[in-house]
């Protein structure tokens, strides 16, 4: 293997944190690495998220660097990584998951229930918008783009009453003082893979694959494989109004999933569990839940 290991990363503070996390973990194993910073389409395109934006906008540039042998390792937020199998890359490791919750960020840490009537809430995510509207159809949910810092500046300038962010990003960026309400899983199911990292290598790079195995967390991996398999079976990208959360408790893999209409008026909830033996348990549970969701009309709700 080429030493040091080259880690491709986007240059947002969150992406850099994630790449530096992997570098420091490698360092603790006595493995040298360097960061290869790149600019991705997702960081420069400030247009609201809609059907015209491509799935994989955050991850493609990073994967390109691997394909072009400019880097050996790609660190992704797993929820931004498309579920389509790409034969050129292998998911080498999924480290222990960070907090999965979505947060409602506002100066007074209001809960969803406490938001004033018709409050203006910023989120570019159809999943968050639909779940908010399913609880509070009066809310004025409006798109917001940019990295975490850009979004917070729009809250500060009172362009929005509140914005939605993943708690994982807030915690990783050491912004624990940020006033916010942690949505319960009943209120807001996270995006498949939220709070988890996915570390990819080139399919033929066995050395890099082996070097990263110490970072893989079995239970997290089985959980996110279940969530991502559900998303794939429903043919939803990261833009679809689909929430899923799986966790292993007492040897059982338990998963909740939701598919919503964009206005939140229709919502299909499913739950299931299975013995957590390996990744095949995850695929089986995802198949069961997605089948039930499709029987109930999920495919018609998913906008492509
Ligand atoms: N789509 C952007 C993105 N990708 C990963 C995270 C947060 C960290 C994570 O979920 O792992 C975010 C920001 C957000 O949703 O608030």
Structure write-up:
This protein folds into 3 domains: 118 residues, Periplasmic binding protein-like II (D-Maltodextrin-Binding Protein, domain 2, 3-Layer(aba) Sandwich); 81 residues, Periplasmic binding protein-like II (D-Maltodextrin-Binding Protein, domain 2, 3-Layer(aba) Sandwich); 81 residues, Double Stranded RNA Binding Domain, CATH 3.30.160. Helix content is 32%, strand content 24%. The chain has a 5-stranded mixed sheet with strand order 2-1-3-10-4, with helices on both faces. Strands 7-6-8-5-9 form a 5-stranded mixed sheet, sandwiched between helices. It has 304 residues and is of the alpha/beta class. It has 10 helices and 13 strands. About 3% of the residues have low confidence. The radius of gyration is 19 Å and the shape is globular. It starts with a strand and ends with a helix. Bound molecules: the ligand NCc1[nH]cc(CCC(=O)O)c1CC(=O)O. The site of the ligand NCc1[nH]cc(CCC(=O)O)c1CC(=O)O has 9 residues, from strand 8 and helix 6.
Topology at a glance:
Blueprint lengths: L4 E6 L2 H16 L4 E6 L2 H4 L15 H8 L5 E5 L11 E5 L8 E4 L14 E3 L3 H10 L4 E3 L5 H9 L5 E5 H6 L7 E3 L14 E6 L3 H7 L5 H16 L8 E8 L2 E9 L6 E9 L3 H17 L2 H4 L3
Parallel strand pairs: 1-2, 1-3, 6-7, 6-8
Antiparallel strand pairs: 3-10, 4-10, 5-8, 5-9, 11-12, 12-13
The chain binds ligand PBG.
